[in-house]
Amino acid sequence: MMNIITRKSSSLASVKAPIRALASVPHIHSLLHFHIHPPISTSASDAVVARNVVTSAALIPPLSGLLGFSGFGVRNFRSQSGPLDFRASVVSRAEYAVADFSDEEKSSKGGDEGLEISKLGIAQEIVSALAKKGITKLFPIQRAVLEPAMQGRDMIGRARTGTGKTLAFGIPIIDKIIQYNAKHGRGRNPLALVLAPTRELARQVEKEFYESAPNLDTLCVYGGTPISRQMNSLDYGVDVVVGTPGRIIDLIKRGALNLSEVRFVVLDEADQMLAVGFEEDVEMILEKLPQNRQSMMFSATMPSWIRKLTQKYLKNPLTIDLVGDSDQKLAEGISLYSIASEMYEKASIVGPLITEHAKGGKCIVFTQTKRDADRLAYAMARNFRCEALHGDISQSQRERTLSGFRDGHFNVLVATDVAARGLDIPNVDLIIHYELPNSSEIFVHRSGRTGRAGKKGTAILIYAEQQARTVRFIERDIGCKFSEVGADLH
């Protein structure tokens, strides 16, 4: 049955007949999405936008019995831009570039191990979109999550960073939204909400959603960009909203974001929400969601706040733990080194460490303070192509810095922990902890920028002699041993 979307239309009858006629063309059911665009109206108030022609037979896969949707009648249909081919995501990307290739993609490519995506019974458009990116199989976290997620189970997934979590929750959500839209039509309010601790991770996750299902409307929202653009995108209607908690709260307070129809909520890198001070915002958002929803959390570590959220907001959740208490918390392939150094010597040994272990590749040096990041970057610029990244840098400069680092215009990034999570930067060869992290979780988050998607990497921890006990604690907590670097670097 054709779904026709109108916005303040006074001329619906003029387009109904040809659209219905087209729906009767033989074999039209073989098309997953067939875009019909009427002529552009001379008046915005008369704009009539035809919906995609969809047939439930083509879109509903064998897993249709696992949908679990209920409680919806006629949805608040969205307005779309028709011939202009507007997509909400385009607005969020117009000014700020994102990487062309993410770690999530690469973790699912190639190799003989894994479950064939084409045999999962999910919507063919997802299979085709992933195949175009070279993703044909699911890896451990993805395989373990898919079946219970399709069954509508709440869950908490624990996995090492860089293991491809985005597709783990993305595939089931996308598949269900496609099925739901085929049955009920596409509404203005989002069906899925994904919370991320950083704007970089939010953009990376939204990119994965869009590239896995280009016919869905996705929107990424975060601070530092004009909120009016994001409000306009929400007014057109979206299927999936991905964003940082702070900007989500702002949009809710302005009445631009309506969460009343959200059926899926995901907290990605949930432990880092606590580290960046988003705990109150996260709980405020969760309180505003419908009770009848599926909730999923993914995290590399499980601090007490995560367990509290699980008890309060998840219903009989399934725990999927691919780390375990006795296993190491870092990805395989990361070599760990430590070196003892006095405060006044540290700056002088960073250069030799980069030369020896990065071997001309990309390196991120993590500092505790913005001042140290600026000072170290300035000192190192005499011998290395190097720039600083921290919270006081403007959003536009931040994007230029990240773009330059990705593209190889410089190969050493000196950063505070603002860059420790969610950066979509492939092929980082070396991580240097210029100062001891405040916790083993932060050490894992920082070090997880290298050795991603099965590649090799190195992490080096610089510490003072009086901090040796803390280093041993980190070793025990992450399940790994540091190899001491020789004193010849001093």
TrEMBL record:
<dbReference type="InterPro" id="IPR011545">
    <property type="entry name" value="DEAD/DEAH_box_helicase_dom"/>
</dbReference>
<feature type="domain" description="Helicase C-terminal">
    <location>
        <begin position="335"/>
        <end position="490"/>
    </location>
</feature>
<dbReference type="InterPro" id="IPR001650">
    <property type="entry name" value="Helicase_C-like"/>
</dbReference>
<dbReference type="GO" id="GO:0003724">
    <property type="term" value="F:RNA helicase activity"/>
</dbReference>
<feature type="domain" description="Helicase ATP-binding">
    <location>
        <begin position="146"/>
        <end position="320"/>
    </location>
</feature>
<keyword id="KW-0378">Hydrolase</keyword>
<keyword id="KW-0347">Helicase</keyword>
<dbReference type="Pfam" id="PF00270">
    <property type="entry name" value="DEAD"/>
</dbReference>
<keyword id="KW-0067">ATP-binding</keyword>
<dbReference type="InterPro" id="IPR014001">
    <property type="entry name" value="Helicase_ATP-bd"/>
</dbReference>
<dbReference type="InterPro" id="IPR044742">
    <property type="entry name" value="DEAD/DEAH_RhlB"/>
</dbReference>
<dbReference type="InterPro" id="IPR050079">
    <property type="entry name" value="DEAD_box_RNA_helicase"/>
</dbReference>
<dbReference type="InterPro" id="IPR027417">
    <property type="entry name" value="P-loop_NTPase"/>
</dbReference>
<dbReference type="GO" id="GO:0005829">
    <property type="term" value="C:cytosol"/>
</dbReference>
<keyword id="KW-0547">Nucleotide-binding</keyword>
<dbReference type="GO" id="GO:0005524">
    <property type="term" value="F:ATP binding"/>
</dbReference>
<protein>
    <submittedName>
        <fullName>Uncharacterized protein</fullName>
    </submittedName>
</protein>
<comment type="similarity">
    <text>Belongs to the DEAD box helicase family. DDX21/DDX50 subfamily.</text>
</comment>
<dbReference type="GO" id="GO:0003676">
    <property type="term" value="F:nucleic acid binding"/>
</dbReference>
<dbReference type="GO" id="GO:0016787">
    <property type="term" value="F:hydrolase activity"/>
</dbReference>
<dbReference type="Pfam" id="PF00271">
    <property type="entry name" value="Helicase_C"/>
</dbReference>
